[in-house]
Amino acid sequence: MDLSTTINGVRFKNPIVAASGTFGFGDEYNELFDVSCLGGISSKGLTWIPKDGNEGIRVYETASGMMNSVGLQNPGVRAFVEEGVAKMRRFDTVLIANMGGSCIDDYVAGAELLSKADIDMLELNISCPNVKSGGMAFGLKADVAREVVTAVRKVCSKPLIVKLSPNAEDIVAMALACEEAGADSLSLVNTFQALAIDVHRRKPVFNNVYAGLSGPAIKPIALRMVHAVCKQVHVPVFGIGGIATAEDALEFIMAGATAVQVGTANFNDPLAGQHIVNDLQTLCEKEGITCWEDVRGCI
Question: Which of 2, 39, 135, 169 is the most interior residue, by most CB within 10 Å?
């Protein structure tokens, strides 16, 4: 079985991609296994201005999952272009730059600079709060998302992935709006907004009160959303949400995804990506799958 797949003209040796925010820029994991075995790596979330991230607890374990409130700690787009890209290019895999922003101007400036860099694709995180609109995330309302994607599309010469929030008012309407605005592909889902309380302190666990929930607990909901979106859009989809095994990855592909991103599983098992790639080959042989078109979107 040839595990390779092509998205927006970019060839992935297999459909397993390390999700943004869970894999850094690849260096630490490469000390444990050859990350070039992965189909791709989505970089740590970048912003136009460098960020120190949130104070207080940043990661908190939950039943069958994890909550995080890291706050997009990152060196900024300029530093990534000047130093980070070359370091990631040492790996023989697809390089996806993930980028967020607090206003449309920041998104545009970042996308314009990243388009000139040696990256393969740009992944736009629209779950970030728009500081000019009272902190509401760009990815909640379809018309707001359409505005930011349209602006980025004008300056972005790389294949453009838009990463969708499951907290959107209507995930299918959101996907269609982003496709119409120029997204070449979509990735979904990002984390679910959630709350954890410390009963001993009688306070929220996180300083920002709410945080993002990910991991196996969200997989059935994420799978449903990916399935619903894939039935309506005409662009490739990266499935995300609680993927920890080859079987999980195959479920998302059967739901219509062209590739998947592995996130929280990397914290539980740093070798998760490598295991999933190897096991996926074995699983396909066992199930008699000879090409992805045999099963993609079969549900």
Answer: 39
The full 3-state SS of 96-119, as one line of letters, equals EEEECCCCHHHHHHHHHHHHCCCC
User: Does 112 reside within a domain?
Assistant: yes
Query: Prior bond to 226 cis, omega within 30?
Result: no
What single letter denotes the amino acid at residue 291? Answer: C
pLDDT of residue 132: 74
Kindly state the tokens that stand for 115.
């388009």
pTM higher than 0.70 for the full model?
yes
Does 299 fall in a domain? no
How many domains, the chain? 1
- pLDDT grade for 128, boundaries at 50, 70 and 90: confident
230 in active site = no
Q: What CATH number did the domain enclosing 118 receive? A: 3.20.20.70
Out of 103, 128, 178, 291, the active site residue is: 128
Assess if residue 231 is contained within a domain: yes
Q: Pairing between strand 192-195 and 210-214?
A: antiparallel
Range of the domain at 153: 5-53+71-192+214-294
- As a whole number of angstroms, the distance between CA 39 and CA 280 comes to 12
What local confidence, expressed as pLDDT, does residue 136 receive? 75
Establish if 253 belongs to a structural domain. Answer: yes
